[in-house]
Amino acid sequence: MSLVAVNGSPSDTSKTHALTVAAARLGQGSVIDVSSLDANALVLRGEHPSVRDALAAISAATTLVLITPVYRATYSGLLKLVLDQLPPECLHNTAVVLAANGNSPAHFLSLDTGLRAVVASLGGWTVPTVVYATGADFGEDNEPNPELLGRLRAALAEADRILPPA
Ligand SMILES: Cc1cc2nc3c(=O)[nH]c(=O)nc-3n(C[C@H](O)[C@H](O)[C@H](O)COP(=O)(O)O)c2cc1C
What we know:
The chain is 39% helix and 17% strand.
């Protein structure tokens, strides 16, 4: 079993990044910060090992955690650049946890209305619980608070339950 947590924020020091690190820590997995990948390869102007390796790691994961800042009431364009490069059905047999960090609680449905359908189009199985956070869910050091970590733990437990036997 392997977990990969993908941070779709342009920042690798932000709250979204901190939530990504927390997911990887809880699931003993690894972090991919999309912002650290080669920009030209992300927009298909060539190939680069950083993008190739990221796509391979995502395809091989048994549990995938997609974590995005909320931009214009949906997931980030940066995350979409990665998802669009995944081959069809590449998330078949992958349990997927959806998480977002926004300024406003008003967009808590954005994971259900946007990102869940993207994962389904790739054959992935999203868990029922989405992890939606706002600034109030983080401490001054950007660390996710215990309540947010509890929601993350619950979603990861659902991922474990839907995975096929090894
Ligand atoms: C271009 C842009 C659009 C945004 N749109 C929304 C939005 O529609 N809803 C919302 O709740 N927050 C919105 N935000 C706020 C971000 O989701 C929020 O600042 C988030 O914490 C960013 O996460 P990060 O700094 O950890 O990457 C937007 C921010 C930017 C830069």
